[in-house]
Amino acid sequence: MSLRINHNIASIGGQRNLQKNDAAVSKSLERLSSGLQINRASDNAAGLVISEQMRSQLSGLKQAVDNSETAVAMIQTSEGSLDEMSSLLSKMRELALHAANAATNDTSQVLADQRELDNAIDSITRIAGTTQFGTKKLLDGTLAGANNYDSTKVYRFDVGSDLLSRADFRASMADLCVTTAGTKTSISVGAGQITGTMFDVGGTQATTNLTSFLNGAISAFGFTNTGSAVSAASFFSQGTNYLAEGAALTITVKGSDFRFESGESVADILSKINNAQDVYTLAVSSATSGVGPSLVRNVLGVGGDANDVTYRFSNAVKASPTSAATAGAQSGSVALAAADVTRGTQTVAALKNVNIGGAATTISLVADTLDASILRANGYGILIDTSNGFSGVAGSLTVNLNKGALFQVGANASQQTAVDIKSMKAYDLGLGGDTRTSGRIENLASLKSRQSLVNSDFKGALQVIDKAIDDVTSLRGQLGAFQANTLETGLNSLRVTTENLTSAESTIRDVDFAKESAEFTKNNILVQASTSMLSQANQLPQGVLSLLGGR
Description:
Distance between the termini: 20 Å
Structural class: alpha+beta
Radius of gyration: 43 Å
Shape: elongated
Largest sheet: 8 strands, antiparallel
Number of strands: 25
Helix content: 25-40%
Strand content: 15-25%
Protein backbone atom coordinates (compact mmCIF):
# COMPACT_ATOMS: atom_id res chain seq x y z
CA MET A 1 0.00 0.00 0.00
CA SER A 2 1.13 3.56 -0.53
CA LEU A 3 1.76 5.83 2.43
CA ARG A 4 0.87 9.52 1.97
CA ILE A 5 0.55 12.22 4.57
CA ASN A 6 -0.56 15.25 2.50
CA HIS A 7 -4.01 13.74 1.92
CA ASN A 8 -5.46 11.30 4.45
CA ILE A 9 -8.08 9.71 2.22
CA ALA A 10 -9.32 7.42 4.97
CA SER A 11 -9.83 10.39 7.27
CA ILE A 12 -11.67 12.28 4.53
CA GLY A 13 -13.95 9.29 3.99
CA GLY A 14 -14.55 9.01 7.72
CA GLN A 15 -15.41 12.69 7.93
CA ARG A 16 -17.84 12.38 5.04
CA ASN A 17 -19.65 9.45 6.61
CA LEU A 18 -19.64 11.14 10.01
CA GLN A 19 -21.21 14.27 8.51
CA LYS A 20 -23.79 12.20 6.65
CA ASN A 21 -24.71 10.21 9.75
CA ASP A 22 -24.76 13.34 11.89
CA ALA A 23 -27.12 14.99 9.40
CA ALA A 24 -29.35 11.91 9.50
CA VAL A 25 -29.37 12.04 13.32
CA SER A 26 -30.25 15.75 13.19
CA LYS A 27 -33.06 15.02 10.71
CA SER A 28 -34.44 12.24 12.94
CA LEU A 29 -34.24 14.51 15.98
CA GLU A 30 -36.12 17.21 14.08
CA ARG A 31 -38.85 14.79 12.98
CA LEU A 32 -39.20 13.22 16.42
CA SER A 33 -39.33 16.61 18.15
CA SER A 34 -41.82 18.16 15.65
CA GLY A 35 -43.91 15.05 14.99
CA LEU A 36 -43.72 15.77 11.26
CA GLN A 37 -41.82 13.93 8.60
CA ILE A 38 -42.03 16.98 6.29
CA ASN A 39 -40.72 20.11 8.02
CA ARG A 40 -39.56 21.98 4.92
CA ALA A 41 -40.03 21.68 1.19
CA SER A 42 -36.65 19.93 0.77
CA ASP A 43 -37.86 17.04 2.91
CA ASN A 44 -40.49 16.06 0.27
CA ALA A 45 -41.36 18.73 -2.27
CA ALA A 46 -44.30 16.90 -3.86
CA GLY A 47 -45.57 15.70 -0.50
CA LEU A 48 -45.42 19.25 0.88
CA VAL A 49 -47.52 20.59 -2.03
CA ILE A 50 -50.15 17.88 -1.59
CA SER A 51 -50.15 18.27 2.18
CA GLU A 52 -50.57 22.05 2.06
CA GLN A 53 -53.48 21.68 -0.37
CA MET A 54 -55.10 19.19 1.99
CA ARG A 55 -54.49 21.52 4.96
CA SER A 56 -56.17 24.34 3.08
CA GLN A 57 -59.12 22.08 2.27
CA LEU A 58 -59.32 20.92 5.88
CA SER A 59 -59.38 24.49 7.09
CA GLY A 60 -62.26 25.20 4.71
CA LEU A 61 -64.12 22.07 5.80
CA LYS A 62 -63.85 22.99 9.46
CA GLN A 63 -65.18 26.47 8.70
CA ALA A 64 -67.97 24.95 6.62
CA VAL A 65 -68.93 22.80 9.61
CA ASP A 66 -69.03 25.93 11.79
CA ASN A 67 -71.08 27.75 9.13
CA SER A 68 -73.59 24.91 8.87
CA GLU A 69 -73.97 24.66 12.62
CA THR A 70 -74.61 28.40 12.77
CA ALA A 71 -77.12 28.07 9.93
CA VAL A 72 -78.98 25.36 11.86
CA ALA A 73 -79.16 27.67 14.88
CA MET A 74 -80.52 30.45 12.67
CA ILE A 75 -83.17 28.22 11.11
CA GLN A 76 -84.23 26.99 14.55
CA THR A 77 -84.57 30.60 15.69
CA SER A 78 -86.91 31.28 12.77
CA GLU A 79 -88.87 28.11 13.43
CA GLY A 80 -89.33 29.02 17.08
CA SER A 81 -90.98 32.31 16.13
CA LEU A 82 -93.13 30.59 13.50
CA ASP A 83 -94.33 28.18 16.18
CA GLU A 84 -95.57 31.14 18.22
CA MET A 85 -97.32 32.50 15.13
CA SER A 86 -99.05 29.15 14.63
CA SER A 87 -100.36 29.31 18.19
CA LEU A 88 -101.66 32.83 17.65
CA LEU A 89 -103.37 31.84 14.39
CA SER A 90 -105.04 28.87 16.05
CA LYS A 91 -106.36 31.21 18.73
CA MET A 92 -107.59 33.61 16.04
CA ARG A 93 -109.48 30.78 14.37
CA GLU A 94 -111.15 29.94 17.69
CA LEU A 95 -112.16 33.58 18.09
CA ALA A 96 -113.69 33.70 14.60
CA LEU A 97 -115.66 30.52 15.25
CA HIS A 98 -116.83 31.82 18.61
CA ALA A 99 -117.95 35.12 17.07
CA ALA A 100 -119.80 33.21 14.35
CA ASN A 101 -122.00 31.58 17.02
CA ALA A 102 -124.31 34.56 16.64
CA ALA A 103 -127.31 33.14 18.49
CA THR A 104 -125.46 33.10 21.82
CA ASN A 105 -123.30 36.21 21.47
CA ASP A 106 -124.18 39.77 22.32
CA THR A 107 -122.41 42.83 20.96
CA SER A 108 -119.92 43.06 23.81
CA GLN A 109 -118.79 39.47 23.31
CA VAL A 110 -118.18 39.98 19.59
CA LEU A 111 -116.30 43.20 20.34
CA ALA A 112 -114.14 41.34 22.82
CA ASP A 113 -113.41 38.68 20.20
CA GLN A 114 -112.48 41.38 17.69
CA ARG A 115 -110.17 43.15 20.14
CA GLU A 116 -108.36 39.93 20.97
CA LEU A 117 -108.07 39.09 17.28
CA ASP A 118 -106.67 42.59 16.60
CA ASN A 119 -104.07 42.08 19.32
CA ALA A 120 -103.04 38.73 17.86
CA ILE A 121 -102.61 40.33 14.44
CA ASP A 122 -100.39 43.03 15.92
CA SER A 123 -98.37 40.36 17.73
CA ILE A 124 -97.77 38.43 14.53
CA THR A 125 -96.47 41.54 12.77
CA ARG A 126 -94.29 42.39 15.80
CA ILE A 127 -92.81 38.88 15.92
CA ALA A 128 -92.11 38.98 12.17
CA GLY A 129 -90.40 42.35 12.48
CA THR A 130 -88.30 41.63 15.55
CA THR A 131 -87.15 38.02 15.14
CA GLN A 132 -83.39 38.34 14.72
CA PHE A 133 -80.24 36.25 14.62
CA GLY A 134 -77.63 38.69 15.81
CA THR A 135 -78.66 41.82 13.94
CA LYS A 136 -80.07 39.92 10.96
CA LYS A 137 -83.86 40.07 10.76
CA LEU A 138 -85.31 36.75 9.70
CA LEU A 139 -89.05 37.00 9.03
CA ASP A 140 -89.59 40.54 7.75
CA GLY A 141 -89.04 39.62 4.09
CA THR A 142 -85.41 40.74 3.73
CA LEU A 143 -84.39 37.09 3.24
CA ALA A 144 -87.11 36.37 0.69
CA GLY A 145 -86.08 35.18 -2.75
CA ALA A 146 -88.74 37.42 -4.28
CA ASN A 147 -90.54 40.48 -2.95
CA ASN A 148 -92.06 43.85 -3.86
CA TYR A 149 -94.62 42.43 -6.26
CA ASP A 150 -98.33 43.11 -6.66
CA SER A 151 -99.94 40.90 -4.01
CA THR A 152 -103.36 41.25 -5.65
CA LYS A 153 -101.97 39.34 -8.63
CA VAL A 154 -99.39 37.05 -7.07
CA TYR A 155 -100.12 35.45 -3.72
CA ARG A 156 -97.08 33.22 -3.48
CA PHE A 157 -93.65 33.40 -5.10
CA ASP A 158 -91.24 30.65 -4.07
CA VAL A 159 -87.67 30.60 -5.36
CA GLY A 160 -85.67 27.43 -4.83
CA SER A 161 -82.01 26.99 -4.02
CA ASP A 162 -81.41 25.87 -7.61
CA LEU A 163 -81.55 29.52 -8.61
CA LEU A 164 -80.64 31.34 -5.39
CA SER A 165 -77.37 29.46 -4.82
CA ARG A 166 -76.12 29.73 -8.39
CA ALA A 167 -72.79 31.56 -8.45
CA ASP A 168 -73.83 33.41 -11.64
CA PHE A 169 -77.24 34.54 -10.35
CA ARG A 170 -77.46 38.21 -9.47
CA ALA A 171 -80.21 40.13 -7.71
CA SER A 172 -82.35 41.92 -10.26
CA MET A 173 -85.77 43.29 -11.09
CA ALA A 174 -87.52 40.68 -13.21
CA ASP A 175 -90.83 40.76 -15.09
CA LEU A 176 -93.57 38.17 -14.77
CA CYS A 177 -95.23 38.29 -18.18
CA VAL A 178 -98.52 36.48 -18.79
CA THR A 179 -99.05 36.28 -22.54
CA THR A 180 -102.10 34.01 -22.40
CA ALA A 181 -104.30 34.38 -19.35
CA GLY A 182 -105.98 31.24 -18.08
CA THR A 183 -109.74 30.91 -17.92
CA LYS A 184 -112.01 28.65 -15.88
CA THR A 185 -113.99 25.63 -16.95
CA SER A 186 -117.76 26.05 -16.71
CA ILE A 187 -120.45 23.37 -16.72
CA SER A 188 -124.12 23.96 -17.46
CA VAL A 189 -127.21 21.86 -18.07
CA GLY A 190 -128.43 21.99 -21.62
CA ALA A 191 -131.95 23.15 -22.37
CA GLY A 192 -134.51 20.34 -22.17
CA GLN A 193 -132.25 17.92 -20.32
CA ILE A 194 -134.08 18.13 -17.03
CA THR A 195 -137.61 18.30 -18.45
CA GLY A 196 -136.80 15.62 -20.97
CA THR A 197 -135.66 13.23 -18.29
CA MET A 198 -138.13 14.01 -15.57
CA PHE A 199 -141.81 13.80 -14.80
CA ASP A 200 -143.24 11.04 -16.91
CA VAL A 201 -147.04 11.34 -16.76
CA GLY A 202 -148.95 8.47 -18.28
CA GLY A 203 -146.07 7.64 -20.57
CA THR A 204 -145.79 11.18 -21.88
CA GLN A 205 -142.79 13.23 -20.83
CA ALA A 206 -143.66 16.62 -19.46
CA THR A 207 -141.55 19.02 -21.44
CA THR A 208 -143.54 22.11 -20.64
CA ASN A 209 -143.90 24.15 -17.50
CA LEU A 210 -145.44 22.06 -14.75
CA THR A 211 -148.15 24.61 -14.04
CA SER A 212 -150.25 22.72 -16.59
CA PHE A 213 -150.20 19.76 -14.22
CA LEU A 214 -151.23 21.60 -11.09
CA ASN A 215 -154.36 20.04 -9.63
CA GLY A 216 -153.67 17.20 -11.99
CA ALA A 217 -151.63 14.03 -11.78
CA ILE A 218 -148.38 15.64 -10.65
CA SER A 219 -147.41 18.34 -8.24
CA ALA A 220 -145.09 21.19 -9.11
CA PHE A 221 -141.36 20.65 -8.59
CA GLY A 222 -140.96 24.10 -7.07
CA PHE A 223 -142.49 27.48 -6.45
CA THR A 224 -141.50 31.11 -6.72
CA ASN A 225 -141.51 33.39 -3.68
CA THR A 226 -145.03 34.50 -4.66
CA GLY A 227 -146.34 30.95 -4.79
CA SER A 228 -146.41 30.47 -8.55
CA ALA A 229 -145.40 27.01 -9.68
CA VAL A 230 -142.16 26.50 -11.57
CA SER A 231 -140.92 23.44 -13.39
CA ALA A 232 -137.57 21.82 -12.99
CA ALA A 233 -136.59 23.57 -16.19
CA SER A 234 -136.86 27.02 -14.60
CA PHE A 235 -136.41 26.16 -10.95
CA PHE A 236 -132.77 27.35 -10.79
CA SER A 237 -133.42 30.68 -12.49
CA GLN A 238 -134.02 32.57 -9.20
CA GLY A 239 -132.40 32.23 -5.79
CA THR A 240 -135.80 32.75 -4.11
CA ASN A 241 -137.43 29.73 -5.77
CA TYR A 242 -138.01 26.86 -3.36
CA LEU A 243 -138.82 23.16 -3.46
CA ALA A 244 -142.46 22.14 -3.40
CA GLU A 245 -143.86 19.91 -0.71
CA GLY A 246 -142.83 16.34 -1.42
CA ALA A 247 -140.16 17.33 -3.91
CA ALA A 248 -136.55 16.31 -3.31
CA LEU A 249 -133.32 17.12 -5.07
CA THR A 250 -129.87 15.56 -4.80
CA ILE A 251 -126.90 17.25 -6.44
CA THR A 252 -123.61 15.35 -6.56
CA VAL A 253 -120.47 17.46 -6.99
CA LYS A 254 -117.14 15.62 -7.37
CA GLY A 255 -118.50 12.50 -5.64
CA SER A 256 -120.14 14.34 -2.70
CA ASP A 257 -123.93 14.08 -2.41
CA PHE A 258 -126.00 17.06 -1.27
CA ARG A 259 -129.69 16.27 -0.66
CA PHE A 260 -132.43 18.87 -0.28
CA GLU A 261 -136.13 18.53 0.43
CA SER A 262 -139.39 20.46 0.65
CA GLY A 263 -139.09 24.16 1.33
CA GLU A 264 -135.38 24.73 0.73
CA SER A 265 -134.69 27.69 -1.53
CA VAL A 266 -132.30 27.79 -4.46
CA ALA A 267 -130.12 30.30 -2.60
CA ASP A 268 -129.89 27.96 0.40
CA ILE A 269 -129.16 24.97 -1.82
CA LEU A 270 -126.36 26.72 -3.67
CA SER A 271 -124.91 28.29 -0.51
CA LYS A 272 -124.72 24.97 1.31
CA ILE A 273 -123.02 23.28 -1.63
CA ASN A 274 -120.55 26.14 -2.08
CA ASN A 275 -119.66 26.14 1.63
CA ALA A 276 -119.17 22.37 1.72
CA GLN A 277 -116.79 22.06 -1.23
CA ASP A 278 -114.28 24.32 -2.96
CA VAL A 279 -113.97 22.71 -6.38
CA TYR A 280 -116.85 24.54 -8.05
CA THR A 281 -118.88 27.66 -7.39
CA LEU A 282 -122.56 27.18 -8.18
CA ALA A 283 -124.81 30.07 -9.13
CA VAL A 284 -128.33 30.49 -10.47
CA SER A 285 -128.68 29.72 -14.15
CA SER A 286 -128.45 32.45 -16.72
CA ALA A 287 -130.08 32.75 -20.11
CA THR A 288 -127.00 31.19 -21.71
CA SER A 289 -126.12 28.58 -19.13
CA GLY A 290 -129.07 26.23 -19.52
CA VAL A 291 -131.60 25.26 -16.92
CA GLY A 292 -129.48 23.92 -14.06
CA PRO A 293 -127.15 25.77 -11.70
CA SER A 294 -124.21 27.37 -13.42
CA LEU A 295 -120.98 25.70 -12.22
CA VAL A 296 -117.67 27.48 -12.57
CA ARG A 297 -114.50 25.66 -11.54
CA ASN A 298 -112.63 27.66 -8.91
CA VAL A 299 -109.18 27.30 -10.48
CA LEU A 300 -107.87 28.19 -13.89
CA GLY A 301 -107.24 25.68 -16.64
CA VAL A 302 -108.80 22.90 -18.63
CA GLY A 303 -109.56 20.68 -15.62
CA GLY A 304 -113.07 19.51 -14.83
CA ASP A 305 -115.50 17.23 -16.60
CA ALA A 306 -119.21 16.73 -17.20
CA ASN A 307 -119.31 13.83 -14.74
CA ASP A 308 -118.25 16.19 -11.94
CA VAL A 309 -121.94 16.99 -11.38
CA THR A 310 -125.14 14.91 -11.41
CA TYR A 311 -128.75 15.89 -10.60
CA ARG A 312 -131.37 13.52 -9.17
CA PHE A 313 -134.97 14.65 -8.77
CA SER A 314 -138.06 13.16 -7.18
CA ASN A 315 -141.54 14.62 -6.98
CA ALA A 316 -144.65 13.17 -5.40
CA VAL A 317 -147.60 12.48 -7.70
CA LYS A 318 -150.74 13.54 -5.89
CA ALA A 319 -154.33 12.69 -6.56
CA SER A 320 -156.43 15.80 -7.21
CA PRO A 321 -160.09 16.52 -6.67
CA THR A 322 -160.71 16.34 -10.38
CA SER A 323 -158.40 13.53 -11.31
CA ALA A 324 -157.93 10.02 -10.04
CA ALA A 325 -154.44 9.40 -11.35
CA THR A 326 -152.48 6.67 -9.61
CA ALA A 327 -150.50 8.11 -6.72
CA GLY A 328 -146.77 7.42 -6.75
CA ALA A 329 -143.39 9.04 -7.06
CA GLN A 330 -141.90 10.40 -10.22
CA SER A 331 -138.12 10.61 -10.26
CA GLY A 332 -135.17 10.71 -12.58
CA SER A 333 -131.55 11.74 -12.87
CA VAL A 334 -129.63 13.95 -15.20
CA ALA A 335 -126.09 12.98 -16.21
CA LEU A 336 -124.37 15.66 -18.22
CA ALA A 337 -122.55 15.24 -21.50
CA ALA A 338 -119.25 16.55 -22.78
CA ALA A 339 -121.14 19.17 -24.75
CA ASP A 340 -122.18 20.75 -21.45
CA VAL A 341 -118.57 21.60 -20.60
CA THR A 342 -116.90 24.79 -21.73
CA ARG A 343 -113.22 24.15 -21.23
CA GLY A 344 -110.98 26.67 -19.57
CA THR A 345 -107.57 27.58 -20.96
CA GLN A 346 -104.07 27.18 -19.57
CA THR A 347 -101.88 30.11 -18.62
CA VAL A 348 -98.83 30.86 -20.76
CA ALA A 349 -96.22 32.92 -18.93
CA ALA A 350 -92.50 33.62 -18.60
CA LEU A 351 -90.19 35.29 -16.10
CA LYS A 352 -88.09 37.76 -18.04
CA ASN A 353 -84.92 39.76 -17.31
CA VAL A 354 -83.57 37.34 -14.71
CA ASN A 355 -79.88 38.20 -14.29
CA ILE A 356 -77.87 35.02 -14.81
CA GLY A 357 -74.23 35.38 -15.76
CA GLY A 358 -74.63 39.10 -16.31
CA ALA A 359 -77.21 38.59 -19.05
CA ALA A 360 -80.98 39.09 -19.03
CA THR A 361 -82.43 35.59 -19.14
CA THR A 362 -86.00 34.51 -19.88
CA ILE A 363 -87.29 31.55 -17.86
CA SER A 364 -90.33 29.82 -19.33
CA LEU A 365 -93.05 28.98 -16.82
CA VAL A 366 -95.25 25.91 -17.14
CA ALA A 367 -98.82 26.03 -15.89
CA ASP A 368 -99.87 23.24 -13.55
CA THR A 369 -102.13 20.73 -15.31
CA LEU A 370 -104.56 20.72 -12.36
CA ASP A 371 -104.54 24.44 -11.63
CA ALA A 372 -103.30 26.85 -14.27
CA SER A 373 -102.90 29.62 -11.68
CA ILE A 374 -99.86 27.69 -10.40
CA LEU A 375 -96.80 28.41 -12.56
CA ARG A 376 -93.56 26.47 -12.24
CA ALA A 377 -90.00 26.48 -13.50
CA ASN A 378 -88.75 23.24 -12.00
CA GLY A 379 -85.17 23.68 -13.17
CA TYR A 380 -84.90 26.81 -11.02
CA GLY A 381 -87.19 25.78 -8.16
CA ILE A 382 -89.65 28.57 -8.95
CA LEU A 383 -93.33 28.32 -7.99
CA ILE A 384 -95.71 31.22 -8.57
CA ASP A 385 -99.33 31.17 -7.42
CA THR A 386 -101.44 33.81 -9.15
CA SER A 387 -104.63 32.37 -7.58
CA ASN A 388 -106.60 33.51 -10.62
CA GLY A 389 -105.10 36.98 -10.44
CA PHE A 390 -104.67 36.87 -14.23
CA SER A 391 -108.02 35.18 -14.88
CA GLY A 392 -108.89 35.89 -18.49
CA VAL A 393 -106.72 39.03 -18.69
CA ALA A 394 -103.06 38.90 -19.73
CA GLY A 395 -100.58 41.29 -18.21
CA SER A 396 -97.25 41.66 -16.42
CA LEU A 397 -95.78 42.77 -13.13
CA THR A 398 -92.31 43.38 -11.77
CA VAL A 399 -90.72 41.39 -8.97
CA ASN A 400 -87.49 41.94 -7.06
CA LEU A 401 -85.37 38.76 -7.10
CA ASN A 402 -82.80 38.41 -4.33
CA LYS A 403 -80.33 35.79 -3.13
CA GLY A 404 -82.61 34.83 -0.24
CA ALA A 405 -80.89 33.41 2.85
CA LEU A 406 -77.55 32.29 1.39
CA PHE A 407 -75.27 29.94 3.32
CA GLN A 408 -71.67 28.88 2.63
CA VAL A 409 -71.82 25.19 3.50
CA GLY A 410 -68.76 23.86 1.68
CA ALA A 411 -65.00 24.37 1.57
CA ASN A 412 -65.05 25.93 -1.90
CA ALA A 413 -66.52 29.10 -3.39
CA SER A 414 -69.29 27.41 -5.36
CA GLN A 415 -70.54 25.27 -2.48
CA GLN A 416 -73.41 27.44 -1.30
CA THR A 417 -77.07 26.78 -0.65
CA ALA A 418 -79.99 29.09 -0.06
CA VAL A 419 -83.52 29.10 1.27
CA ASP A 420 -86.40 31.46 0.58
CA ILE A 421 -87.69 32.91 3.88
CA LYS A 422 -90.77 34.94 3.01
CA SER A 423 -92.25 37.79 4.99
CA MET A 424 -94.52 36.64 7.80
CA LYS A 425 -96.00 40.03 8.57
CA ALA A 426 -99.78 40.10 8.88
CA TYR A 427 -100.31 41.93 5.60
CA ASP A 428 -98.29 39.24 3.78
CA LEU A 429 -100.26 36.34 5.26
CA GLY A 430 -103.57 34.95 4.04
CA LEU A 431 -103.18 36.38 0.53
CA GLY A 432 -105.67 34.74 -1.82
CA GLY A 433 -107.49 32.94 0.99
CA ASP A 434 -110.75 34.78 0.38
CA THR A 435 -111.88 33.63 -3.06
CA ARG A 436 -114.81 36.00 -3.39
CA THR A 437 -114.84 38.34 -6.36
CA SER A 438 -116.33 41.23 -4.39
CA GLY A 439 -115.95 42.31 -0.79
CA ARG A 440 -112.82 40.19 -0.55
CA ILE A 441 -110.55 40.30 2.51
CA GLU A 442 -107.09 40.77 1.04
CA ASN A 443 -104.85 39.59 3.89
CA LEU A 444 -104.67 38.82 7.59
CA ALA A 445 -104.14 42.46 8.55
CA SER A 446 -107.43 43.34 6.82
CA LEU A 447 -109.33 41.40 9.50
CA LYS A 448 -108.40 44.25 11.83
CA SER A 449 -108.80 47.19 9.48
CA ARG A 450 -112.20 45.94 8.28
CA GLN A 451 -113.34 44.70 11.73
CA SER A 452 -114.46 41.46 10.11
CA LEU A 453 -115.90 39.83 13.25
CA VAL A 454 -117.86 42.91 14.26
CA ASN A 455 -119.23 43.11 10.70
CA SER A 456 -120.14 39.40 10.73
CA ASP A 457 -117.85 38.48 7.83
CA PHE A 458 -117.04 35.14 9.45
CA LYS A 459 -116.68 33.10 6.27
CA GLY A 460 -114.13 35.48 4.77
CA ALA A 461 -112.29 35.74 8.09
CA LEU A 462 -111.99 31.97 8.44
CA GLN A 463 -110.81 31.60 4.85
CA VAL A 464 -108.07 34.17 5.36
CA ILE A 465 -107.02 32.74 8.73
CA ASP A 466 -106.88 29.22 7.27
CA LYS A 467 -104.74 30.52 4.41
CA ALA A 468 -102.46 32.31 6.90
CA ILE A 469 -102.10 29.07 8.86
CA ASP A 470 -101.17 27.35 5.62
CA ASP A 471 -98.62 30.10 4.85
CA VAL A 472 -96.93 29.74 8.24
CA THR A 473 -96.96 25.94 8.30
CA SER A 474 -95.71 25.84 4.71
CA LEU A 475 -92.68 27.98 5.64
CA ARG A 476 -92.11 25.90 8.77
CA GLY A 477 -92.14 22.75 6.66
CA GLN A 478 -89.81 24.33 4.12
CA LEU A 479 -87.34 25.40 6.79
CA GLY A 480 -87.58 22.06 8.56
CA ALA A 481 -86.85 20.18 5.35
CA PHE A 482 -83.97 22.56 4.61
CA GLN A 483 -82.48 21.99 8.05
CA ALA A 484 -82.91 18.21 8.01
CA ASN A 485 -82.18 17.41 4.38
CA THR A 486 -79.68 20.11 3.45
CA LEU A 487 -77.88 21.44 6.52
CA GLU A 488 -77.80 18.42 8.82
CA THR A 489 -77.06 15.86 6.12
CA GLY A 490 -74.43 18.27 4.80
CA LEU A 491 -72.94 18.48 8.28
CA ASN A 492 -72.68 14.70 8.47
CA SER A 493 -70.97 14.62 5.08
CA LEU A 494 -68.58 17.43 6.04
CA ARG A 495 -67.56 15.64 9.22
CA VAL A 496 -66.89 12.36 7.41
CA THR A 497 -64.92 14.20 4.71
CA THR A 498 -62.91 16.06 7.36
CA GLU A 499 -62.07 12.79 9.10
CA ASN A 500 -60.93 11.05 5.93
CA LEU A 501 -58.99 14.04 4.61
CA THR A 502 -57.25 14.46 7.98
CA SER A 503 -56.22 10.82 7.83
CA ALA A 504 -54.84 11.28 4.31
CA GLU A 505 -52.93 14.44 5.27
CA SER A 506 -51.56 12.73 8.37
CA THR A 507 -50.21 9.87 6.26
CA ILE A 508 -48.25 12.33 4.14
CA ARG A 509 -47.11 14.84 6.78
CA ASP A 510 -46.96 13.16 10.20
CA VAL A 511 -43.94 11.12 11.32
CA ASP A 512 -44.18 7.43 12.19
CA PHE A 513 -42.53 7.47 15.62
CA ALA A 514 -41.80 3.75 15.69
CA LYS A 515 -40.07 3.87 12.33
CA GLU A 516 -38.30 7.17 12.99
CA SER A 517 -37.04 6.15 16.42
CA ALA A 518 -35.50 3.06 14.86
CA GLU A 519 -33.87 5.28 12.23
CA PHE A 520 -32.62 7.60 14.98
CA THR A 521 -31.06 4.71 16.92
CA LYS A 522 -29.40 3.37 13.79
CA ASN A 523 -28.04 6.77 12.77
CA ASN A 524 -26.86 7.49 16.31
CA ILE A 525 -24.85 4.25 16.34
CA LEU A 526 -23.45 5.10 12.92
CA VAL A 527 -22.30 8.50 14.24
CA GLN A 528 -20.51 6.79 17.09
CA ALA A 529 -18.95 4.27 14.72
CA SER A 530 -17.95 7.02 12.28
CA THR A 531 -16.35 9.00 15.08
CA SER A 532 -14.36 5.95 16.21
CA MET A 533 -13.24 5.11 12.69
CA LEU A 534 -12.27 8.72 12.03
CA SER A 535 -10.05 8.55 15.07
CA GLN A 536 -8.44 5.41 13.69
CA ALA A 537 -8.00 6.99 10.28
CA ASN A 538 -6.25 9.95 11.82
CA GLN A 539 -3.68 7.55 13.38
CA LEU A 540 -2.76 5.92 10.07
CA PRO A 541 -0.29 8.63 8.81
CA GLN A 542 1.77 8.22 11.93
CA GLY A 543 3.10 4.95 10.44
CA VAL A 544 5.22 7.08 8.13
CA LEU A 545 7.36 8.12 11.09
CA SER A 546 8.71 4.61 11.43
CA LEU A 547 10.05 4.91 7.93
CA LEU A 548 11.78 8.18 8.78
CA GLY A 549 13.28 6.73 11.96
CA GLY A 550 14.84 3.81 9.97
CA ARG A 551 17.21 6.19 8.06
